[in-house]
Amino acid sequence: MFSFFPSRSAGLVAGLAVAGLIALVPAARAQDAAAPAQTAPAATQTAPVADVPVTPAKPIKSSIFSFGKDKKKADADKKAAAQPAPEKESKKEEKVIQSKDTRNRYKKDKKIETLAGVDAKLPDKALFDKAQYAIAHGHFDVARLDLQTMLNTYPDSQYQMRAKLAIADSWYKEGGTAALTQAESEYADFRVFFPNAPEAAEAQMRIGDIYFRQMDRPDRDYAKATHAEEEYRRMLTDYPDSTLVPQAKQRLRDVQEVLATREAEIAGYYATRENWAATIARYQTVVDTYPLYSHMDDALIGLGDAYSAQAHFVRGLKMDETAKAKLEATFDGEAAAAYRKVVLEHSAAAHVEDARDRLAAMNLPIPTPTLEQAQASQAMENSRNNYRLTDRVGLIILHKPDTVTVAHIGDPTLTDPKPTLAPDVTRNTVAAFNKALHPDAVPEVGAKAPVTADGETTAAAPATTAAPLQFQDVPAEGATGGATTGTSFTAAPAGGASSGGGNGVGMEVLSPGVNGATGNTVPTAVPGVTLTAKPAPLPAIEKAAEAPTTVNEISAPQAAAQAPRADGKKTKPEFDKGDESSSKHKKKKGLKKLNPL
Q1: CA distances (Å), 15 to each of 8, 12, 18, 21, 40, in order?
Q2: pTM for the whole structure
Q3: Segment 72-124, tens digit of pLDDT
Q4: Are the beta carbons of 284 and 294 closer than 8 angstroms?
Q5: Which of 17, 20, 121, 427 is deepest in the core (most CB within 10 A)?
Q6: What is the fold of 119-254?
Q7: Smallest Cα–Cα separation from 164: which of 140, 193, 141?
Q8: Where do the structural domains in the chain lie, given as residue ranges?
């Protein structure tokens, strides 16, 4: 038998639904009929009403779907009838109650602008308020005009300082390269005119913000980031008690994050080119200058890998095994020191396991950080933010530097240590090779002490210098051994004075013919001093040969045209009208060309 429903259960459910609808139809009709009967007695109890044309009642809908709507309408009419008539609202109820956000916003604006609404009837205050309103609505030119008018008209106004700061703020809020440059000049002038005002710290903070707003990505020009770092450091140094110090510290951390990222990226580029001296120099600068860098573990691991690459290069050299072992120990020691720093000081970092694996591959013990070191590293990592979708979209669209993972604790460095340069690293490497190949040689002054793989620093041998020549080492007078130029020296007595009681220094100069000196006195040889014989006399200076006479090869007589006239007048040069022309000597035209005269 063909069935309309796909299954027996579906047909059963449909049948029950139809049966329920059929049962509800009589009940709905009965309730609709009973509704007029209930309202009729209530109408008879009311006062008689004048003859009013009765409108015919609307037909009652018998649909089962109108049952619920009519019931709701009836309940609403009952509630409206039960409620008393509304009385006149009191003034207290008419008062608008501000929300919590509105009150907080009002307090914040009052804190920023303390002179709002004070002495509003004064003319200078009226101009100041008008300018503030214009700045708030983006009319910066109008605001600056009103403020300048106030300064020129009322030079002794109590709002003079605020007006100068407002002019700088208008340039800052306007934005743009030219406007920000003008804002920096205005803020600098404000610091000069009002150095002790509390707003001077705000002006210095805004100067740093000007450069901060113009910062670009780390792989672009970093001049703005360098200027921002200088201004924020000046802010922290000159105004240590300002309320803007925490904000300035955080901005300084952001700027140093960008600068550290730039150095680390350059080091990574040199590492791909296997320029290990430049790689070590860049990574070492990051480690020494920017201790709050978010990827410090990567920088230290990169530094250790550069030293490991140098050790691997040494293993492939054909040289003395003893010298090779010393060089390997030196470079492996530097690499191990970088890996240990990751394990100890950055135990909560993301790549600490890589440092442990490298130490294990070098067959070195893995150190364990102390409780204080572990807690400090964990607090540092917890203070960093995580990337959100809005952050990633902003970095792609706005082309701004990445400062999401910057730390929010710790003091940024206020002075830069001496940077590590690639030539210095190269000199240290050459000194290490010379030390290994020639252990008895005197090390260069300032050479870096090598670090062994166990983490111990070997002290470099002190440089030995030759002792200065003393007067006691000079041979006495009358000794023989070499030819001199007629001067001899004698040693000073033990008492330090000459026999004559004078203040002599124990030296006697003998010249030929004086004091019986013959000029042939020869001192004995002095250790470490080479004496040369009397130089031979120079040959006589020869007279320079005379220069040959100049012969003029052109001996033809002077032309008659060039010969001067007897009367002294100048002769006019000949002029060929056929070849040349001028305003006075014009070419012949037409038939005149046939005239030879």
Answers
A1: 11, 5, 5, 10, 41
A2: 0.58
A3: 666 766 666 656 555 555 555 556 677 877 877 777 766 655 555 556 678 88
A4: no
A5: 427
A6: 1.25.40
A7: 193
A8: 119-254, 295-383+421-437
